[in-house]
Amino acid sequence: MNPKKDYVKIPIQVVLSGVTILLVITSVSLLHTNQYEFIYLRFSGLNMLKVSYFDTILYASYLTAGILIGILADRLGKRKIFLIIGSSGSSLFFYLMTRAPVYWALLGCRFCQGAFTVMEWQILMTLVLDYASNQNRGKCVGIFGVFLAVSMGVGPFLGGIIAKRGIFFPYYAAAVLNMLVLLVTIFLIEEPSNLKRKPSLSESFNILKTRSALVIPAIFNFIDRLHIGFIIFILPLYIQIVLGQGPEMRGMILGIHALSFILLQYPIGKLSDRYGRYTFLIPGSMGYGLLLSVAGYIGAAGLGVLAGLFFALGIFSGLTGPPNAALVGDLVNPEENGMAVAFFNFSGNIGIVFGPMLAGIVTDLGSFALCFVVAGIVELVSLGMCLLLIRKLHRPLRFPSFQYLCTKDRKEIHSAGKQNDI
């Protein structure tokens, strides 16, 4: 191995962004394990579909706020101010949700909390692409993904423990975590130095015309996020209603699902720098769809079987996350990162909006088992669409780099990894 060619240092700001996303996503995932008590038992007269609105309205706020944040971040050439505003607003509305007198007031607070939260994690993901280079983008995204995945695993586990002390305690903890994000941002996060040109509004909105290949990672992200929304809504309810287990077991299974995902983030991101993004995206998506289709039937055999299933699902999910996020940076110039990430997250947020709704509707009309079948079929159909688009945009499917998927006027991304390296 040639160290000059294969080893590129990771900017310390990438690690700081990872630590910060750990705090942000943990604050959100703390809430998943006690929705049954916080919503279903707290407000009378709610069916599964209405309970799903609590997550759906969150993801709807991601949709409406995400694009605006991407445009403003590129136009202003600033990142840090959005983290300050987002963490402050998130803290406030996490607390206000505990004071909502009726369900519709709770949904209003949830929408506002989501708008501020998406401001945080979208900017943090943009910062990772800002500081990464062509040589280490997959590795940087993989490191960021480790922190992200840890938060998704630790959050529900801690949430289950905290919820035993009171149904509002996870929300208080979420508010505190976002205050920590505010402090980290003020004292440690730095603005990238490589943001020069500020795209106009028309250029920002026309990004799909000039970077048409962005639709591929967008579709993969749509389906990935759909299943995130699906699982974090339906799995705790499945464990409660089908298997009769409480908040601690719900958090444990969500944590097990995240564990395998965590373990694969860095190695898969690093390997995708060398062997290509689709090498991992395609088999990961296919395996996930097939296994998810049978999870509702097989999981009913017991908690141990369900844990094994979701550990395996985490493995397939781990094959898709880092390569897909790195693919976004492969396709655009640095000054377009904000809008590219905004579009990437916009498509994902459409998916995450539909995830809980899909789960609520199919469960009310059919059963939990049928719900998982439908979700698996959606994954496989979306993969088929991606395969058609990949073949249209580039042949063959396997290749080591995706830089030439961009339009011919794409500029080389200058290395952003030379300063503040570790």
Describe this protein's structure.
By secondary structure, the protein is mainly alpha-helical. It has one domain (12-191, 212-405): MFS general substrate transporter like domains (Growth Hormone, Chain: A), CATH 1.20.1250. Helix content is 76%, strand content 0%. The chain has 16 helices and no strands. The protein has helices spanning 3-6, 12-29, 35-41, 48-76, 80-97, 103-131, 137-163, 169-187, 201-205, 207-210, 215-241, 247-275, 278-298, 303-330, 337-365, 368-393. α5 (80-97) packs antiparallel against α8 and α11 (215-241) runs antiparallel to α14 (303-330). The longest helix has 29 residues, at 48-76. It is globular. Residues 1-7 and 395-422 have low confidence and may be disordered.
The count of DSSP E runs of length 2 or more, i.e. the number of strands, is 0
Text of the CATH class: Mainly Alpha
CATH superfamily: MFS general substrate transporter like domains
What's the pLDDT, averaged over the residues?
A: 80
Q: Radius of gyration from the CA trace?
A: 20 Å
CATH topology: Growth Hormone, Chain: A
Task: Estimate the global geometry from the Cα principal axes.
Answer: globular
By secondary-structure content and strand pairing, the structural class works out as: mainly alpha
Distance between the termini: 21 Å
Number of DSSP helical runs: 16
Overall tally of structural domains? 1
Strand portion = under 5%
Largest sheet: none
Flag low-confidence runs: 1-7, 395-422
